[in-house]
Amino acid sequence: DKANYRHFMAKEIHEQPEVVGHTLARYIDMASERVMLPVKLPFDFKDIQRISITACGTASYAGYVAKYWFERLARIPVELDVASEFRYREAPLRKGDLAIFISQSGETADTLAALRYAKAEGVHTLSVVNVPTSTIARESETVLQTLAGPEIGVASTKAFTCQLMVLASLAVAAGKARGELSDEDETKLVHGLVEIPRLMAAALTLEPQIEKLARDISKSKDVLYLGRGTSYPLALEGALKLKEISYIHAEGYAAGELKHGPIALIDETMPVVVIAPYDRVFEKTVSNMQEVAARGGNIILMTDAKGAAEATVDSLVTIVLPDMASAFTPMVYAVPVQLLAYHTAVVMGTDVDQPRNLAKSVTVE
Ligand code: M6R
Q: What is the DSSP track for 146-179?
């Protein structure tokens, strides 16, 4: 049931600190501060030359974030595809490499077909699924479950952040197995992960500010989302979330791509949501923001206290998230991104949990 919430989506957004915490507890041993996978992997990450990640929609954006993590923490090249492309592309896979599939339902037709293709190619298959009895779970060599609990809202929220938690843990395990991370590095990263539920809860307290902002957004015809590094896939996710439930056209772009085209769209009528935690690419994103401001664009900046102090642009609205020491910002920044889409849809009066033309689980091609 919806508890005291108006929509399942609201309930599911608010459940995130708890369910991400459960997921964390399944993958991290709190006592030793080590990543501890609940299953034994049938391969050694040292032998993996390339990972391919395949999924659809929001799950593919979780995969896109994970690409950055695997490459950075474990130095494994990752190829990412949406399942509908992967399944027909006949991508050459190297026997013994690893293919990861991400799916909340575990029943998405294209993702399942991609899994079957990968199995036939002789690679190890690992799926990150929320429904352990699903077809994708049953047919995968290894299953890592997200403990999001049932997700009812068609727009995926808590499944996404739980997927990120599992993938972050797996990337740390991979880095450790390959000797890219020391014990000390692992402890530091684990500390970062353990902080996430608390930081997500802090992000939820920004709701009144976001609700107010949603009233402005609801008047727009188009919204642009920008991000760099792991905030780039989150920008894609933000745009998807907004369009699927509010029916406002939105696009996510890598901030650095702005001047290669989309900057032509900038005027005072199109809000630009910039996702920019104070990280190693922050300065670069700020310079893209300056380009937007110089063309009269209205900026909504999602950052932390440090970023808010350093951003030398007059932004329309700044949403200040808690400071974070780790590289796992997407789990926390997902919260304002989801809330913005949710409240915009509520203002628009759309059917938030059952948006038109959409099904929760896409079991046909
Ligand atoms: O069940 P799955 O995770 O495989 O579903 C994948 C997509 O259909 C799903 O994430 C879809 O994009 C959502 N409606 C996004 O909110």
A: -------SSS--HHHHHHHHHHHHHHHHHHHHTT
